[in-house]
Design brief:
Layout (H helix, E strand, L loop, with lengths): L2 H26 L17 E4 L5 E5 L4 E2 L9 H11 L11 H14 L9 H10 L6 H17 L2 H11 L6 E2 L1 H9 L8 H10 L3 H4 L5 H17 L5 H9 L16 H15 L1 H6 L3 E4 L3 H20 L6 E8 L4 E6 L24 H10 L8 E4 L4 E3 L2 E3 L10 E4 H6 L3 H11 L1 H10 L21 H12 L3 E2 L5 E5 L5 E4 L5 E2 L3 H17 L12 E6 L5 E8 L2 E8 L12 H16 L19
Parallel strand pairs: 1-5, 3-4
Antiparallel strand pairs: 1-2, 5-13, 6-7, 6-18, 8-11, 9-10, 12-15, 13-14, 16-17, 17-18
């Protein structure tokens, strides 16, 4: 080759290299800015607990992860991962020239990217920023980003981020969640045998998982141990002991089902409305619900048992819902939205708006007492009456089509007479009744029509339980909730739902109504609800027996029970809340209150009567 030719080749090669470098430089300007990782927070699994701290469920999106600091990770696991993935991690600046060189030769020989040569830092930036497609340009981008990342984060910061980010199989991300899944223990407690097995999984979780093949996982474990021994990071004795250590597997937790799905789904929906779906699935929230697991279990068993019982008694009802609320806090203590969650996830406790029938009447009677114009001893006529309404004349009837003539207001509610309730509503003003309902948190559409006092609107069992709870607490009300407290994974408080009670009802009227409703249970339509302690409540049966209810309370707990069909078909002629639902309420309350002291209601005489 002549000097001129050699010069031309050199110039041409230089131009190609220069052009390639310019092209790379231009493309690298579009690479992500690694500085964002200073504040990077990987997605985390959110956990739900009952009021006493018992785990109910975990919820996550595509990544089931719990982030932990580096000092909470077993030293054996850190060494095992570095040994098999990047033994020169603490000495390189983001790329390992010898590994890259070896990989480049293999890739050149095969004509494709077959061997990685990636450092742990390169793997991290690939997982966070880049696609998984194997291309030379991506490998170069990995190297550039890795060098940049090493300039802004310390080695320990990078290792911590990697161990919390890496995928370990079975939709499990991060070292803590993987340790809990594979071995049923925290990452801090892993021994050398477990650490070597876990480190070996990273390269191909779908193949090396012990849940897939313990034999293959053990072979991979030996590979990691061999590497650690060759590096001088473990002794021959440690190597031999690890190989002989029996591995006890945990269980796959990636798609863990909730032990109480109606509770956790209700809590998740409440959080989604406040913070959005992504925060729930990826925010690593720690959600303390208000629910008592013991009480919830009783509620679920009560619904399942009594559904079978009333069906055997001829009640043609496919569904049931039960909600219990603490009147002092408005914390939901138990919530069952249907007979069988596995067959129907629809939550009738919070989403089904059904007519409450006569269980609506207490709101009318409260309004009458709060007006100052009526007392329990006031006389009202249970006699025929008609009202002009759009389209004609409406004539209300009592359930048995009879009339009792003049009777005390107290007795008219105890035995659930319809005509006295309609007349009371008309006397105090139906707009006032609507106002009472709104104050109590009943948000369904309702019109001030003459039939309103008979419950011709849609309400949810939760709305009813919460409304009765406010009456039980003499008019003091907090916002009803199923969430007591929410923190992030570091313990920082995000939401604190500590009760903030406000007086929203007239206390004398609420206490007077409670006193009257005690009579419903002692000598009225709800005698089947007697539980051997002071209690107040009301039966509810709609026209054509489409919905039957019992809602009642003691000072410490208010519970609503609804029975009916999703398709609004009648449950059976003569099926009433007093006969069939009051016993369900009694069964639940008797068990739920077993360890709760008996408490009397405060008498109306302790409050000033409104003028």
């Amino acid at each position: 080759m002549t000097g001129g030719t050699l010069l031309a080749v050199i110039m041409l090669t230089s131009a190609i290299v220069a052009g390639g470098l310019v092209g790379l430089a231009i493309s690298f300007r579009n690479l992500p800015d690694v500085r964002v990782l200073r504040n990077y927070i990987p997605s985390e699994t959110s956990y739900f607990y009952d009021i006493n701290g018992k785990v109910l469920a975990s919820i996550h999106g595509e990544a089931n992860r719990e982030v932990i600091p580096l000092n909470r990770i077993s030293p054996e696991l850190k060494r095992a991962v570095l040994a098999i993935e990047d033994s020169h991690f603490y000495s390189h600046n983001g790329i390992n020239i010898s590994s890259v060189g070896r990989a480049s030769i293999v890739n050149w020989q095969r004509g494709a990217v077959a061997e990685g040569g990636s450092t742990l830092t390169m793997q991290l930036v690939k997982n966070i920023f880049l696609t998984q497609q194997r291309r030379f340009s991506r490998k170069v981008a990995e190297a550039v980003l890795a060098i940049r990342l090493e300039q802004i984060l310390s080695k320990d910061q990078i290792l911590e981020m990697y161990l919390n980010q890496v995928y370990w199989g079975h939709n499990t991300y991060g070292v803590e969640t993987a340790a809990q899944s594979y071995f049923g223990k925290s990452a801090a407690d892993l021994n050398l045998a477990e650490a070597a097995m876990m480190a070996g999984i990273i390269q191909a979780p779908q193949n090396y998982s012990p849940f897939v093949s313990m034999k293959t996982a053990k072979q991979r474990q030996e590979t990691v141990l061999n590497r650690m021994r060759s590096l001088g990071w473990i002794t021959a004795e440690e190597d031999e002991k690890a190989r002989e250590t029996k591995i006890t597997l945990g269980k796959v937790r990636s798609f863990q089902r909730s032990s109480m799905p109606f509770v956790t789904n209700t809590a998740a929906q409440e959080l989604e409305r406040e913070y959005g779906l992504e925060a729930v699935q990826k925010g690593g929230l720690r959600v303390q619900t208000t629910v008592d697991s013991r009480m919830q279990q009783i509620a679920e068993e009560t619904v399942a048992k009594w559904h079978k019982t009333i069906r055997s008694q001829g009640v043609r009802a496919d569904q049931m819902a039960l909600v219990s609320v603490d009147p002092r806090t408005q914390f939901i203590k138990a919530l069952v939205g249907g007979v069988d969650y596995q067959k129907s996830e629809f939550n009738r406790a919070t989403q089904a708006r059904r007519q409450p029938g006569s269980s609506f009447k207490p709101f009318v009677y409260y309004t009458a007492f709060a007006s100052g114009k009526f007392t329990p001893n006031s006389v009202i006529n249970d006699t025929p009456v008609s009202y002009r309404i759009p389209g004609g004349i409406w004539t209300p009837k009592n359930y048995d089509d009879s009339f009792n003539g003049p009777m005390p207001v107290r007795r008219s509610l105890e035995v659930s007479r319809n005509i006295p309730a309609v007349k009371l509503g008309s006397a105090v003003g139906l707009n006032k009744v609507v106002e009472t309902c709104r104050i109590l948190g009943i948000n369904s559409p309702m019109e001030p029509v003459p039939s309103l006092p008979l419950g011709a609107i849609g309400v949810t069992p939760l709305e009813m339980a919460s409304a009765y709870a406010t009456i039980a607490n003499y008019g003091w009300q907090s916002k009803p909730t199923i969430i007591a407290r929410v923190t992030d994974s570091s313990g920082n408080v995000i939401l604190d739902n500590s009760p903030k009670p406000q007086l929203v009802l007239e206390p004398w009227a609420a206490a007077t109504l409670t006193d009257v409703m005690k009579g419903v249970i002692t000598s009225g339509t709800g005698t089947a609800a007697q539980i051997g302690r002071p209690a107040a409540g009301k039966t509810g049966t709609t026209s054509s027996e489409r919905d039957i209810w019992f809602v009642g309370f003691v000072p410490q707990l208010a519970t609503a029970v609804w029975v009916g069909n999703d398709n609004y078909q009648p449950v059976g002629k003569g099926a009433t809340g007093g006969v069939f639902v009051a016993p369900i309420w009694r069964s639940f309350m008797s068990q739920a209150l077993k360890n709760t002291p008996v408490e009397n209601f405060r008498p109306p005489s302790q409050f000033d009567r409104p003028k």
